[in-house]
User: Fold this.
Amino acid sequence: MPQPEKIALQCPMPKFDFDMITMGHGSGGLLTHRLLQSGVFDILKNDLLDQQHDGASFHLNGNVAFSTDSYVISPVFFPGGNIGDLAVNGTVNDLAMCGAQAQYLSLAFIIEEGLLMEEFWRILVSIKEAATRANVKIVTGDTKVVEKGKGDKIFVNTSGIGFIHENASIHHRNITSGDKIIVSGNIATHGMAIMSVRQGLEFESDIKTDSTNLNHTVMKLLDEFGYGIKFLRDPTRGGVASVLNEIAELTQLGYHLDQKLIPVDERVDSACEMLGLDPLYVANEGIFMAVVSAAVAGQFVEALRNDPNGSNASVIGQVSELQPGKVTMRSRIGGTCIVSYLTGEQLPRIC
Amino acid sequence: MKYLSEYRDPELVEDFLREIHRITTKPWTLMEICGGQTHSLVKNGILEMLPKKINMVHGPGCPVCVTSVSVIDEAVHLAFRPKTILCSFGDMLRVPGSSKSLLEAKAEGADVRILYSPLEAVQLAKDNPDKQVVFFAVGFETTAPANALSVIQAHHLQLKNYSILASHVLVPPAMEAILGDHENRIDAFLAAGHVCTIMGMEEYYPIAEKYQCPIVVTGFEPVDLLQGILMAVQQLEAGTYKLENQYSRSVQRAGNRMAMETIHEVFSISDRAWRGLGNIPQSGYEVNDRYKNFNARLKFNLNLRAAEENKDCISGQIMKGLKKPRQCPNFGTRCVPEHPLGAPMVSSEGACAAYYHYSNASVNEPIEG
Assistant:
């Protein structure tokens, strides 16, 4: 595994002659030039970005995965992270779930005028740090500015391209009866960290996002378990329940969870309880789900538990031919229930 | 959450289940009042663990479900008022009004905010002196104290831009409406623990006596529910009809006096139209004359035409315990959470939503007759 370059970034903000982003910074004129030259290009510096073309040119040879995602999170800054590292980790992880090691990312900002330069700088620093950790280069990008009220501080899009691991064959078609369902860590942490600071829903907590890059972890697992790994997915929006419903529908197999095996941090569980939310539907960032053959499940979990990103990994259920197309769960007390798709947004309850 | 895990203990659950199975000799129909109880029963798979002779039916204790279409229309109307912020508990947003839900109003540009506490709405009013802030005050006796407190606080702060749209409903009159119905088939009630935490148990003694119906004030966790069911079945098998308290860790006979005083300071008892159950006399709270400046209905002169309930929604029969969600011909077909015909399909405490999201078809035993 390539060692990430040591992060020597406290990155003091360079002196700008403006303290907030205005419409002019997206005009393509002098202000855009100044912003990019003294900020963005400097901090994200690499050989391909330094070409400063309309796009990056490079050679590819092999099976590649390509993915894109837009980030519109509110609030932009939240406990343990911000939209910047989320945007890098998110696309890096999407590629990892395809069995690919991210190589190159594009990065596009849509900024609402009025964003403070200090805030933009903090986001850029987080992007740089996340890219360094994931060992991925940001090779092309774009900056647009929209009028006040037409955005929500800043939206970020990243697209990424990466080589697929030679042992990877990740597709829901590979899933068969008897396979085990695994999560790599505590569920619902990221979503509850965001909820804890959302306007109108703030509650006191020390829950931090677990957003991180999972590519190195997944590549190690692919080295070791290869075709034993049938399916990977990061359960972001809609949570664990939505991913399982999706694959249950596609594979027409039954997915059976055991509630007492599902790892949830106690504070997160309490916060969900208090707000009337079900952790199975809460968004995640720093974990992934895997469906693996029963033969390797034990070793897979053990390998994960030895990885910093998988210390709470657990088998949470298994696949069978019973109740095809459905997700069921054995409750803590031994009853069973259906786990269905989430309808719309999970909304807090009254009492 | 240590104080919760004890009430989810599989061994205790098994003990209670064994005892319920042992003592049940006749068929009994029990109604749990609260939607939170319904969801706990379904989500934990308790319904299928009970003896076949015990028929659990699901009561009207979901505040979202019983809020009438006309009141939703009032909220939507206020949300579209210029310079107005309509604040609501999240649960209310998807409930259909006669033309649209608050969620649809929000998508069309109305300023609708989801809050957890009405006190946040007071703060919002303080921070936005150029706007009117209306809090959609729904709920049973449980949410009434905080809603009343928001009015008292706004009064102290001399806020002229805060008001509430009150649609509070009360449990005991609804129980009497169900028990007094000529079709009634409820043998015993599990009363709602949270409501009794606030209001105490005094109002329930005469109901148990008058209708000769055992009532057990019950909590929400699996162990609470099973103990409540056991206590009710013990009474039914013995032919008694007392009021009992399973939820004694929270409920005192006299209730929470300070909370009740707060309620009575701001609200007076009024008639209320319930979705599915119709008009029930003296079954709700309305802002009293002393605080009439904080009553959104008076302040904005709301006088909308009463809207009709959707006739295809059988929520009334469900909440009276006459039908179960799957017995509705529209369940899961014309009525799904994305396109609900009625509130019980969208509220997180609604019985139809509980069945739709969590229950196996096999556990829904048809009701005879």
The helical segments of chain A are 30-44, 83-97, 117-134, 189-195, 215-225, 239-251, 266-275, 294-305. The interface with chain B takes residues 200-201, 203, 266, 269-270, 273, 275-276, 328, 330-340, 343-344, 347-351 of chain A (CB under 8 Å). Residues 79 and 147 of chain A are 28 Å apart (CA to CA). Residues 117-134 of chain A form the longest helix (18 residues).
